[in-house]
From TrEMBL:
Annotated Pfam families: Prenyltransf
Superkingdom of this protein's organism: Bacteria
Organism this protein belongs to: Cellulomonas carbonis T26
Name of the protein: Isoprenyl transferase
Record's keyword terms, sorted: Magnesium, Metal-binding, Transferase
Keyword Transmembrane included in the entry's annotation: no
Cited InterPro entries: UPP_synth-like, UPP_synth-like_sf
Length: 253
């Protein structure tokens, strides 16, 4: 239930003030779920939900900056989503391209595109790579844009890159097997060099990862929000941070 506006604003300010800055997650992953269901709930076409969801990204990044977050990973399109109807997929990719280009144009965040771009139409892949290149020198919040992303695909890509690297160095499979370590995989993931996600937020009430950051999320905390992504509010974000800050993170120990 939404609080009346004056009470809501007061509650939001108090909630924000109560969060200890030192407890902020360094890396937040967000599964932007529920755009199509939101559109159905208001009697609109799926594209309307996708556009409203794309507009919400700017708010999320600003909230993350305010909270002291260093890395945000946005899951905008999964490998499974690529099987949608050609009409919806073409429209969705256009919305994603526009959203990512808009973020790049602000020159405020460093964008990194991650996913199987070879599965996307060439023009879409080129547009995403261009947005990434235009923000390569930006210092500030690092934003991973996961498009055509699947956790299993990422791990398979990492293994392929590892094998190619060692083959190029003349390492035999037997030699690689003797020295192989989990860090060899980590060094070839899309997120190499970044901290693993401390917190993953999924909207729309679904309580599953669906393959998001499979390797990186072994010690991640999860927060599932009932709101559809287009309805996700700052107070929902702050509640996620509050939940995270209240947890005792054992990190497997």
């Amino acid at each position: 239930m939404r609080l009346p506006h004056p009470v809501y604003a007061l509650y939001e300010r108090r909630l924000a003030a109560s969060l200890p800055k030192e407890a902020a997650p360094r890396h937040i992953g967000v599964i932007l779920d529920g755009n199509r269901r939101w559109a159905r709930s208001v009697g609109s076409a799926p594209s309307h939900g996708h556009r409203r969801g794309a507009d919400k990204i700017l708010d999320l990044l600003e909230w993350s900056e305010e909270a002291g977050v260093q890395v945000v990973t946005l899951w905008m399109l999964s490998t499974d989503n690529l099987s949608r109807s050609p009409e919806e997929l073409t429209e969705l990719l256009g919305i994603i391209q526009d959203a990512v280009a808009g973020l790049a144009a602000r020159g405020r965040w460093r964008l990194q595109v991650m996913g199987a771009l070879d599965l996307l139409p060439p023009d879409a892949a080129a547009a995403l790579r261009d947005a990434e290149a235009r923000t390569a020198d930006v210092v500030g919040l690092h934003v991973n844009v996961a498009v055509g992303y699947g956790g299993r695909r990422e791990i398979a890509d990492a293994v392929r890159a590892l094998l190619r690297e060692h083959a190029g160095n003349g390492t035999s499979l037997e030699e690689l097997a003797e020295t192989f370590d989990v860090e060899h995989i980590a060094e070839h993931l899309y997120t190499k060099g970044q901290p693993d996600p401390d917190l993953v937020i999924r909207t729309s009430g679904e309580q599953r990862l669906g393959g998001f950051l499979l390797w990186q999320s072994v010690h991640t905390e999860f927060y599932f929000c009932e709101a559809y992504w287009p309805d996700f509010r700052r107070v929902d974000f702050l509640r996620a941070l509050r939940s995270y800050a209240a947890r005792e993170r054992r990190l497997g120990r």
